[in-house]
Design a protein that fits this description.
Mean pLDDT: 91
Strand order of the largest sheet: 1-2-4-5-6-7-8-9
Distance between the termini: 77 Å
Number of helices: 10
Radius of gyration: 20 Å
Strand content: 15-25%
Helix content: 40-55%
Shape: globular
Low-confidence stretches: 1-5
Protein name: GGDEF domain-containing protein
Bound molecules: ligand C2E, calcium ion
Domain EAL: 23-274
Largest sheet: 8 strands, mixed, barrel
């Protein structure tokens, strides 16, 4: 006899409860992670395609849980977003990233990811301005990465907050481009300096049907016509890199040129590099 709908539902209940409990435990633990020193930044190099020199780093959050060990951002960032913990954690990320960047040569920029909930935070502007001032960091060296999902419900306050940040002199990059809604109308509103082409296109770029490379080419020409630069994300092989470069991507980021690394290692990598 096949199990009826009810039987199936009963079997799933404990599993759902387990998952909900796991999630609640994660929320509680994440709430204490910052003060307990369990959060850290990793810096991934961003490289100029033409000469393969490092031109910046992207700050990526890492959480080492005392029992569960390393928890990937794709698992805990959503929890941080849902609980609002992303706001205080984000303040820490901004301060920490700016403090490290201040130790680097002046042509090396730092990119920091911002979730939509962080843009709604009324303290964000002050935290960014203070972090720049405290560390004597030129605003143009800080690039804030935001995704298209921010523009889903076009709030006036969002555009106003971005404009206020922009007025500080920081830059904006549009992250994960091509994976979201792409209504494109918002592109000029936030005055992006850069489009980051999502890894999903880069990793399919060499496939014989040529679709992904056609998309990369289209994104590059869109970017250029709006006076923006592009970064190809998730470049893992030299073939991918060379294709992206030939399609006009100015900068690349990916395992080929370096994985996210501890701040000390990133700092050593660019130490003594002089501005040309
Ligand atoms: P993202 O902003 O798109 O960051 C790039 C992700 O791609 C990083 O994953 C990076 O480690 C990974 N990656 C880079 N190069 C390669 C490659 O060649 N191959 C492959 N397979 N992967 C590559 P990570 O560090 O796991 O971060 C995942 C996401 O979590 C980020 O995606 C970002 O959306 C979010 N995130 C990380 N740190 C922060 C943060 O401080 N604040 C916020 N709001 N979000 C963050
Ligand atoms: Ca990013
Ligand atoms: Ca991305
Ligand atoms: Ca992302």
């Amino acid at each position: 006899v096949k199990s009826n709908g009810r039987g199936a539902a009963c079997r799933y209940v404990p599993e759902i409860r387990e998952r909900a409990e796991e999630r609640r435990a994660l929320e509680v633990d994440l709430g204490m992670a910052l003060e307990r020193g369990q959060l850290a930044l990793a810096f991934q190099p961003v490289v100029e395609a033409a000469d393969e020199h490092i031109v910046g780093f992207e700050a990526l959050l890492r959480w080492t849980h005392p029992v569960l060990g390393k928890i990937p951002p794709d698992k805990f960032i959503p929890v941080a977003e849902d609980t609002g913990l992303i706001v205080p954690i984000g303040h820490w990320v901004i301060r920490e990233a700016c403090a490290w960047a201040a130790k680097w040569p002046r042509h090396i920029r730092i990119a920091v990811n911002l979730s939509p909930a962080q843009i709604d935070d009324p303290l964000l502007l002050e935290v960014v301005a203070q972090a720049l001032a405290d560390n004597g960091l030129e605003p143009a060296r800080l690039e804030l990465e935001i995704t298209e999902s921010l523009f889903l419900n076009e709030k006036v306050s969002t555009i106003e907050r971005l404009a206020a940040l922009k007025a500080l002199g920081v830059r904006f990059a549009l992250d994960d481009f091509g994976t979201g809604y792409s209504a494109l109308g918002y592109l000029h509103k936030a005055a992006f300096s850069r489009i980051k082409i999502d890894r999903s296109f880069v990793s399919r770029a060499l496939q014989p049907n040529g679709e992904a490379s056609a998309i990369i080419q289209a994104i590059v020409s869109l970017a250029h016509s709006l006076d923006m630069a592009t970064t190809a994300e998730g470049t893992e092989t030299r073939e991918e890199f060379e294709l992206c470069r030939s399609l006009g991507c100015e900068q690349v980021q990916g395992y080929l040129f370096g994985r996210p690394m501890p701040p000390e290692e990133a700092t050593a990598l660019v130490a003594g590099v002089l501005v040309e």
